[in-house]
Amino acid sequence: MYAPYSRCTLCPRNCGANRLRGETGYCGEQAALRIAAASLHRGEEPPVSGSQGSGTLFISGCNLRCTFCQNHQISQGGMGKGLSPQGFAALCLALQQEGAENINLVTGSHAVPALERGLREARSQGLALPVLWNSSAYELPETLSLLESLVDGYMPDLKTLDSALAARFFHAPDYPEYAQKAILWMLQERPLRFEGTRLRSGVIIRHLVLPGYLESTHRVLAWFAEQAQGRALLSLMTQYTPVRLPGTPSGGAPDRQVQPQEYEQILAWLDRFGITDGFYQELASSPEGAVLPDFSRGEPFPPELARTIWRPPAAH
Fold first, then answer.
1. How far apart are CA 52 and CA 48, in angstroms?
2. Whole-model pTM above 0.85?
3. Confidence tier at 316 by pLDDT (50, 70, 90)
4. Which CATH architecture has domain 3-310?
């Protein structure tokens, strides 16, 4: 039933865990699909959030271990509840009933076989919304192809093209190699298509600016201009906020937010590369303006940003 989990090679970690027999992969997960929250999220890019909000499903576990992950409670902290394909389908249909613009699967690279079953069940029960794949891009095209007929759009990160930086902050020196391959596959599979102002197909490439490491951003912008301009939208994020994960070293992660002079340099590079298709965040005026979710609360996000429609009855 879950044969790909018997010796897991779903992602570039290739950890070989037998997740069917209770072993956990590098992602921290066994075979069961676990979800930490379902919400109507209004903080995504405008074509994704629309007027009603994106139907986000936060999937427990992750195959990266970013030293500053804002969602570390669910990516590395074990929060979430196991759901059957029918239970997953029920969440999708509940989001549709609440008016969600789409189903937005957040960080599901390690759970593709279970998500395939859940999405097929949801479609059979009447799910009609576009499905978006929201990931780190540290994944394999052959795994992504299992969802090819079920996913309408992709929102991958392109965190860095610097192997040393990827090793230091993401524990994945091969991240640049695999992320480029995965994103190029996505670009080939899903051309941009809109219905009015809403994204119905295509790719939005996201990049989080790391304070003090602007050369990494420069390389990403150059890559986008050469490989994806006209084929995808760019989402340039300046929301970096220092996070210290409990019991883990920081790995030298930046301890400050993006500064105004860095922000001006980034905007100048956008002009230099002629990148006009996409979005960039306004610079946060102060650390107090940063929005850090807390998934131990009934409402992990501020009410103006999201409305939670489902949370597990217990934290773990």
1. 10
2. yes
3. very low
4. Alpha-Beta Barrel (3.20)
